[in-house]
Design a protein that fits this description.
Elements lengths: L1 E7 L17 E2 L2 E2 H12 L4 E6 L4 H14 L6 E6 L4 H9 L6 E8 L7 H12 L4 E7 L6 E6 L6 E7 L7 E3 L3 E4 H11 L4 H4 L6 H6 L5 E4 L10 H12 L4
Parallel strand pairs: 1-4, 1-6, 4-5, 7-12
Antiparallel strand pairs: 2-3, 6-11, 7-10, 7-11, 8-9
Bound molecules: cytidine-5'-monophosphate (C5P).
The site of cytidine-5'-monophosphate has 18 residues, from helix 3.
């Protein structure tokens, strides 16, 4: 079974507020994407690595060229760089369109998770080998999670939110990447997603939910606190500390 790893790196990184696409934000003096790609190569599971980058981003292309050079001697590894799309799912679809024909499983990984340990890649790929068509890494949540709806305060009508429900915390999981799939299953899921209206498409935040919509079982393996998604300036601080210190 041949495995491709897709790294989606075409996001804008607005929430990080550094004015450059997130995958280019520096971590330990190097672009975040460099750490993410090294982690994927180190896992040793990929026969193809496909990176979806922002369209017409010369700096990002340069980073990718350098990365391919760094690992170019690994001749059994095929590299593909594609222009991403307007949303994450479109970026994934762009990557799926260039996978080699002998690929049977695919892992979709956020560029924004630069410190994912090899063990997470291993657990995901083992579950695929054991017959899962979809598998995702997860952590138990520490916060109590509530759903909310828009509301007005009783006295003033001031626009706030109010609680509409509290799911049992013991059954909630925070989902990470890499998310692993049988390649045909993921292709079907994304084809199905293309028929969604804009409002539904805007609610797509990971690949597994598209596979769930097909009625396929999505299996869960243990994630890692080191696999955090660098989204806010606080996350960046934490990632710097993990990279530098004994936390790693
Ligand atoms: O926005 P969010 O944090 O969910 O993004 C998760 C990952 O998806 C990031 O690594 C980002 O670069 C990627 N992405 C993408 N194309 C987009 C939007 C996000 O590749 N249009």
């Amino acid at each position: 079974a041949k495995c491709a790893v897709v790294i989606v790196a075409a996001g804008s990184g607005q929430r990080l507020g550094q004015g450059v696409p997130k995958a280019r934000v520096l971590l330990g003096g190097e672009p975040m994407l460099v750490h993410t790609v090294r982690g994927v190569v180190r896992s040793g599971i990929a026969s193809q690595i496909c990176i979806a980058v922002p369209a017409e981003d010369a700096a990002m292309e340069q980073i990718c060229t350098k990365l391919v050079g760094e690992f170019g001697s690994k001749t059994d590894l095929q590299w593909s760089i594609v222009a991403g799309g307007a949303d994450r799912a479109e970026s994934v679809r762009a990557a799926l369109s260039v996978l080699a024909s002998d690929i049977t499983t695919v892992l979709i990984h956020d560029a924004a998770r630069p410190l994912t340990p090899a063990g997470v890649f291993d657990r995901v790929s083992h579950a695929l080998r054991d017959g899962a068509k979809a598998v995702i890494p997860a952590l138990a949540v520490v916060d109590t999670i509530k759903t909310v709806v828009p509301a007005g305060l009783p006295g003033t009508g001031a626009g706030v939110e109010k609680v509409s429900g509290t799911p049992a915390r013991s059954r909630l999981r925070a989902i990470q990447t890499p998310q692993g799939f049988d390649v045909d299953t993921l292709r079907r899921a994304h084809e199905h997603a293309q028929s969604l209206d804009a409002a539904s498409a805007a609610l797509i935040t990971d690949d597994a939910m598209l596979v769930e919509a097909l009625g396929e079982d999505v299996y869960v393996v243990q994630g890692s606190t080191h696999s955090l998604k660098v989204t806010t300036p606080t996350d960046l601080l934490l990632a710097e500390a993990m990279l530098a210190g004994p936390l790693r």
